[in-house]
UniProtKB/TrEMBL annotation, chain A:
The keyword Transmembrane applies. Residues 106-312 form the ABC transmembrane type-1 domain. It is a multi-pass membrane protein. It is found in: Cell membrane. It comes from the Bacteria. Keywords: Cell membrane, Membrane, Transmembrane, Transmembrane helix, Transport. This is Spermidine Putrescine ABC transporter permease component PotB. InterPro entries: MetI-like, MetI-like_sf. Its main location: membrane. The chain crosses the membrane at residues 38-65, 105-129, 141-162, 192-212, 239-264, 293-313. One of its GO terms (biological process) is transmembrane transport. Belongs to the binding-protein-dependent transport system permease family. CysTW subfamily. GO terms for cellular component: plasma membrane. It comes from Lutibaculum baratangense AMV1.
Amino acid sequence: MAAQDTSPAPEEVAAPTMAPHGTDYAAIAMRRERRNNLALVSPALLILVVGASGPLVVMLIYSFLAAGDYGGVVWEFSTQGWFQVFLQRDMFDDTIGFADAHLSIFWRSLSLAFITTVLCVIFGFPTAYFIATRPPEQRSLWLFLVTIPFWTNLLIRTYAIMEVIRNEGLVNTALMKAGLISQPIQMLYTDFAIMLGMTYVYLPLMVLPLYASMEKLDFRLVEASYDLYASRMNTLRRIILPLVKPGLIAGSILVFVPCLGAYVTPRVLGGGKRLMLGNLIELQFGQGRNWPLGAALSITLLLIVMVALLIYVRNASRQGGAHG
Amino acid sequence: MYRACEGVGKLQATVTQVQPGERAAARLGTGQGAVAIALKGVSKVFGSGADAFKAVDDVSVDIRQNEFFTLLGPSGCGKTTLLRLIAGFEHPTSGEIRLKGKDISPLPPFDRPVNTVFQSYALFPHMTVAQNIAFGLEMLRRPKSEVQETVDRMLKLVRMEQLANRRTSQISGGQQQRVALARALAPQPEVLLLDEPLSALDYKLRKEMQIELKRLQSETGITFIFVTHDQEEALTMSDRIAVMSEGNILQIGSPREIYDHPAQRFVADFIGESNFLKAEVVRPLDPGAEIRLPSGATLTAGVPEGMRPAGSVTVVVRPEHARVVADPAAGALRGRLTNIVYFGTDTHYHVELPQDGEFIVRMQNQRGSEASFETGDEVGIEIGDGAPQVLKD
């Protein structure tokens, strides 16, 4: 920067009349910088265009084509895929009604993702608070412990949960041995199992951003709040929560979005009976042989996520604006 | 009514009088009210086993109502821990803390009618100035109208009306400090604790805030417990000072008592400049004692309360309580001038004594009396009767 600022100066001083013919170093530097920036972003840009936007465009096109008899698409325009997302034609009298099966899956996905996010907040908040209040040299150890499950394959972790909650699993065996129950409690293949699995899988994604926010929290403010007659609950509500809100929002997004599209966990723990959106989409590309519907469902999921994000971001920026 | 008059008197004392001694004299008889905070044998140990660290060691002190009480000491002496014990952020390992006779040691901070002005101010960054000040009152569930009224009064008290709706990040350090004060005063606590609140301010602002603090104390009539390591701050602001070292209170007294009659070498050394001399006690007097310096001169000296001095003792002489004279035989001590340092208002003479090392004399510079001393001169040092103070250790 310094060189850029000073280099034209001597020339101007020496020969002010030459300025129109002289070289404009600032403009050259700016052009060079723009070229460098472009070179730097090009790999990311390439991946985004080819790897993400490309398939999206393909999906969008497929959603407006007709389904082939054995999967794939037929290249003729059709809105059948989009029609089937929310509506269905009755098999016998051709009346049009809502696709109850699809809607209930949408509803289950949204509510399970929401409840999982809430559960992650409930479990993640104290965890993050605990870590943030440890002496600095201990914190990385605790963070490491929280992220350990992350280094294990998702499928293995999910089967591990299955082992714990199935009818002959750890929990039921222990309860029956203790004589508390005579029949095993059906936990596997329920919404509870899916929720448990997703909470377990995504908890680190809540803890990490929450911790990052709490680490920056000045705990003297907590003392000041206690000093000013605020109970623990009021201190949490009035001081800690507003100050760690950015982490809470980031964590919620990181948990809610993948939960909404979760595939493996509901597949294994829901046993294929309790479908979520991810499973429904997979079904259309597999056994259902209805690629346009699958494509339309995928884009619907994307739109739901984007709307949810927009609401979050708008809330966050309004808060941020008020804070700044 | 009487209290109010007293407050005004104090305010004037702060503004018009500069000499700590004079002010203390002007206040004689004040501060004898009821006890606000009583510490009884309070100790605080951090850690356990071999790592145990005694931050506060068996401290007992009565702090009176409407008193400006200062805990003075070097960093790590336990003064901040003592303050945190009173606030409730720490709980004593042993001993008890009484507020107006009621034991508050088991209470959490939010159940104590005590507020703190933090060294870092600890203002809530997501609230405005007014919201910060209102926080304590809202937590006490005061009616909305009362909260609003008190906040307005506090803003006026600290002269921040214009900035009520600013974020705390948008105001200067001095303004933040005033907001912190207003926030702590708003719930009208029995006792206000101030943890080195002026240390982050620059010199000029600090001087202003010292006067401001005294004004606030006399206007509100609240007991102030002030923690500082700045002896000048302690001398100019306090009704009484407790000098602390290594978890103990070494001496409690008015600024004048602490300065003129330090009981221990640490107190004398920490507050002001000191010359330490060896001496022999000739005979006890009432009050004080007659002492003989190694040079042979006999003088009367002050003696700490409750001490029966005998044998060889250490005495302290303040630099301004001695005079340099040209005739070496005329003074109580004699020595060679090694250094003369001019300070504008006064001059410091460094005299090398044959027995006791260096002795510093501070003399005020008066018009037309330019001293004619030069380094290397043999001079005498005159010490007034009563100027030396016998130390306990």
